[in-house]
Amino acid sequence: MMLSSILFLVAAALLPPLVLLRVVYQMDKLDREPGALLLALFFRGALAMVPILVLEVVADQFIDFFPWRPIVYLFLAYFVVPGFIEEGVKYRVLLRRTWNEPHFNHRFDGVVYGVFVSLGFAAVENVLYVLTSGFSTAVVRAIFSIPGHAMFGVVMGEAMSRAKWLEVHGQREQAGAARRRAWLLPAVLHGLYDFLLVGFGWIFYGYFAGLVVYVVRLLRQSAREDGPINL
């Protein structure tokens, strides 16, 4: 493959996540986050590809070792593994880097952080897929996969902001529940995405449309309700 072709495919793979990052960043009206922090989150999300790949290989080997029924195998391989592993690693990156971050002081901040981590991972994944499969893959993934990762990041980040608010206001038990939801809800949504995509045809498209409606409403609501966490 010629260098110019490689550069074109890399650009095609990176453009969708960068556009979505810009959109979410522009929605942060009250107190935008410093560029250095956002770059750190993006690159940490990208580096999350390494432990995710290792964990998924181990999980796939474990699943392949047993003679599952086909539907059980699909559930484990395409719901549990990608959903809970990918979102679990992203959650750990987000929690460790931002929970005690001084700039995490507004309710919309968690959404921005979640999307930057999620799309950091998605950008690397997209480049790998597109370099392997070509430009047509870039088009399909720009419509489904990249927005999917962004939406999981929105859901995770909104729950993280809610947990931060509850923690600051002394509601530690509720904050712990919100932190758990910041992992579990994106994991379930991601798992359903992959599971339905593999074997359920038009049901997937209905699910994806419903997910878009849900997340767009959540995103707009989070932007409207943005304000200082400590008030």
Structural notes for this entry:
The protein contains nine helices and no strands. By secondary structure, it is mostly helical. The chain has one domain (about 5-225). The termini are far apart.
Number of strands: 0
Give the class from helix and strand content and strand pairing: mainly alpha
For the sheet with most strands, the description reads:
none
How many domain modules?
1
Beta fraction: under 5%
GO biological process, one term: proteolysis
Family: Belongs to the protease PrsW family.
Keywords: Cell membrane, Hydrolase, Membrane, Metalloprotease, Protease, Transmembrane, Transmembrane helix
Protein name: Protease PrsW
Question: How would you concisely characterize the structure shown here?
Answer:
The protein has 231 residues and is mainly α.
Index terms:
single chain; mainly alpha
Give the arrangement of secondary structure elements:
Layout: H1 3-27, H2 35-47, H3 49-65, H4 70-98, H5 109-133, H6 135-143, H7 145-168, H8 172-199, H9 202-224
Helix pairs in contact: 1-5, 1-6, 2-5, 3-4, 4-5, 4-7, 4-8, 5-6, 5-7, 7-8, 7-9, 8-9
